[in-house]
Amino acid sequence: YMLKLLMVIFVNSPDAFSIEEAGYDTQIFELVTVNQPMLKVQDDVTALAAEVFFPLIEKHGKDVVLYLHSYAGFPGSAAIEGLSKAERLAAGKRGGILGLIYQSAFIPTPGDTLLQMIGGTYAPWQDPNTPIGLIGVVDPKTTFYADVMEPLATKAADRILPHSLLSFNTALSQTFFGIPAYNGRRTYLYTNHDQALPPFAQDAFVAASGVEWDVQNLETSHSPFLSEPKQLAAIVVAKVQAFLATY
């Protein structure tokens, strides 16, 4: 059995849509801070590095493209430390992260917490329960899946679990999306009808990042992998090929 040489990793995206039809292996990473009140953003960073990046990149020398959705921009921005393809090539190592795709995702800089990045107070659609240390969503179907067809929208909404409040209130000490290795290899996918993170918030994240992004716009709500899977797959495949062409 030959491991295919390229893997597209989706973090916090419940569906790898149609990427596999284009011949790419995919892996979905489930956040460890979901429904775990004692865990912080750093626990997601550690898990992503140990469970996904170490086996794929360090052990198997695979090239990967990272797709980060929403909160996943937090752990993803830190877990990529030292793993870019450019850094590994320079060190004579196989495999690495070819490029980054952030979809309506947070782009944290050191010291940022998620709560700070949404303005310091929880959004009306969020339902924090401080005594149990979890934060839920008042109406996940409207907030995340407004343009998703039934019965898929209800099924997706029913799968939503609360998130650790600590993970929204802890900062990262370092982030690595801004390193020169990713210049020309950073894509931000805007979701223009997003009810959870409206376009002005996505704009603010991109502007505050201090680096250049190839920006693409999707006329969808927060979850295009469910509402427009074919269109999104075409964009991701094109980006993977564009990243590959830079090496």
User: How many separate helices?
Assistant: 10
First-residue to last-residue Cα separation = 26 Å
Oligomer: single chain
Number of E-type strands:
9
Helix residue percentage: 25-40%
Largest sheet, if any? 6 strands, parallel
- The main sheet orders its strands as 2-1-3-4-8-9
The coarse silhouette is: globular
The helix/strand order is: EEHEHHEHEEHHEHEHEHH
**Low-pLDDT ranges:** none
Radius of gyration: 17 Å
Q: Which structural category fits the helices and strands? A: alpha/beta
Beta content comes to 15-25%
- Mean pLDDT across all residues, rounded? 91
Please provide a written account of the structure.
By secondary structure, this protein is α/β, with parallel strands linked by helices. It contains ten helices and nine strands. The strands form two sheets. The chain has a six-stranded parallel sheet, with helices on both faces. The model has no long low-confidence stretch (mean pLDDT 91).
